[in-house]
Hints:
The complex is a heterodimer. Chain A is mainly alpha-helical. Chain A contains 14 helices and two strands.
Amino acid sequence: xxxxxxxxxxxxxxxxxxxxxxxxxxxxxxxxxxxxxxxxxxxxxxxxxxxxxxxxxxxxxxxxxxxxxxxxxxxxxxxxxxxxxxxxxxxxxxxxxxxxxxxxxxxxxxxxxxxxxxxxxxxxxxxxxxxxxxxxxxxxxxxxxxxxxxxxxxxxxxxxxxxxxxxxxxxxxxxxxxxxxxxxxxxxxxxxxxxxxxxxxxxxxxxxxxxxxxxxxxxxxxxxxxxxxxxxxxxxxxxxxxxxxxxxxxxxxxxxxxxxxxxxxxxxxxxxxxxxxxxxxxxxxxxxxxxxxxxxxxxxxxxxxxxxxxxxxxxx
Amino acid sequence: xxxxxxxxxxxxxxxxxxxxxxxxxxxxxxxxxxxxxxxxxxxxxxxxxxxxxxxxxxxxxxxxxxxxxxxxxxxxxxxxxxxxxxxxxxxxxxxxxxxxxxxxxxxxxxxxxxxxxxxxxxxxxxxxxxxxxxxxxxxxxxxxxxxxxxxxxxxxxxxxxxxxxxxxxxxxxxxxxxxxxxxxxxxxxxxxxxxxxxxxxxxxxxxxxxxxxxxxxxxxxxxxxxxxxxxxxxxxxxxxxxxxxxxxxxxxxxxxxxxxxxxxxxxxxxxxxxxxxxxxxxxxxxxxxxxxxxxxxxxxxxxxxxxxxxxxxxxxxxxxxxxxxxxxxxxxxxxxxxxxxxxxxxxxxxxxxxxxxxxxxxxxxxxxxxxxxxxxxxxxxxxxxxxxxxxxxxxxxxxxxxxxxxxxxxxxxxxxxxxxxxxxxxxxxxxxxxxxxxxxxxxxxxxxxx
Lengths: 316, 450
């Protein structure tokens, strides 16, 4: 069987073109096999992503209040969402996170990748692994862990600051919670972005560096003038990942809320707002609308960013 | 080739079946025999029909075993679906999806209205609930019913008292305060003693705790009756609440109390390591304290009645307390009602709950028994805390009314209290803002304000 398959498909690979004009038997069979291989994925994709999306969208077109029941309202929920001060406040919060957190992660990831790219000792492999390790920690566990590290009682800050006779900062207070969250996310994701950038750096032809050295370029010049421009498409991709992740910010503040309920209200980010609307206040319809509204915002921002960086990412 | 194709198709189909099988499996909690595999407890009588129960009582396994051993016509299949809000979230989702709810569910009395308005609970009067009415404490029964309807069977209550550290009080020369005025003086004295402890914590996320303190000064935040489910009276900023909150705001500003979040690991440790000299607690508090680690080994705990506003006219309040309700999704509602009434509705079951789970019973035959009143608690140096404190507090409790969106109300209360202790607004403004936000929410949800 195996040999027959190999023989029959070999000539096909050389001449794929005629299939378009006159679908022959072989081509149709291959088509069928393609569908079979795609089917398991397609089934899961449809059941767990597309269908829930359609269902949620349908829900978002209705309204249901505690006292009066369900009725169809069309786009009303969306109009309400985009004029809901709590939702807009949440959007402002994640925008602030995006402005601080994404540059911070990018800078750390890029610097680490550039340094590691230049080193060729065992220390580089070890450091690479160590920087990546936080990404291997599940997000919830990472956030729980940091919750304890920030705790005035169980965390190390008290004893460290105590050595110098200082009072430890309150990481979970209203004024510092923002920085504490930025720190958790950066710790977790910088390593992952570093690996992406590092892989892109390894893909550059070393001959280019040799040419640069012959032309008298210093290490720093090579890094900023040659390496960074050459991996710009990877950088764009990293920013897109970070942007989408940040706008949907949920897990870390939700977990940290367990130890800082005052500083992190239930509507801290748009996703947290949708979550509490649905599962704490049983407003599933409005929660669906909020989720889709957030989806629209994420789409618009991602699209805008890709459009503005179309040169760097090689899309143009 | 054809055989191979069919084989692959078969695999795909099988995968699909397995996948849908998984997703369907979680949803079926309908009380059929198929649920047997997911029970936490062992089923004694395999032939009898089963009733699924969600509950988080401590030592509940023993109570379930007791029930299953003494009933041959019905068996409990118990799952711990999380404590408080965790469980309510799951229940709420299964109400929305129309499947997946248990037959019988543990609910705190404060959330009953939130679920009756969604038509999720069965009125138990037609299954004989009124026949057992006189077996339960009056206030607790009041909390579980609305008008003529009875939506749940009370299990345990939370009359409030004051647990304090005798050793810290003695070292600072403090007498046990009986009024809130004395409480403030004691707090001041403790601060001046330089012991480093504060008298108590005033958590901004105390929710029912904060509300209970307000109620002691006569605050009645909600007027609601499921007979007229679309009408609600909201008065969270009445004079009682304002007086109490101004008092606590004063203590916070003078640095006499802590404002740590409750129910965190930090808070749990501070409760028992001497950071707070007093734990303003419900009757389930002693059980909670004993379960905490890192306790001060030399601690001497005693219990006293909650301080009063007017010592001549003592007012008793309740914090927490839970019930068993039957859900509309229950297949055999009569059987489910039998279970809801029977789990703790007998001396053996309730005694197990009292002895092993440190519950404060609403079931009168145990509540009124000599054994319960005279029970000595080793944790309190042999003090008879029920007789000294909690039974008196429970006897004076008349019941309370909660809103049908209590979770939202509590979340907003936390927002306002946090803002107050951050110094952004005073007590009066915090409660006025709370009132405004709840009125707006109620209107949005289609209620008419009384």
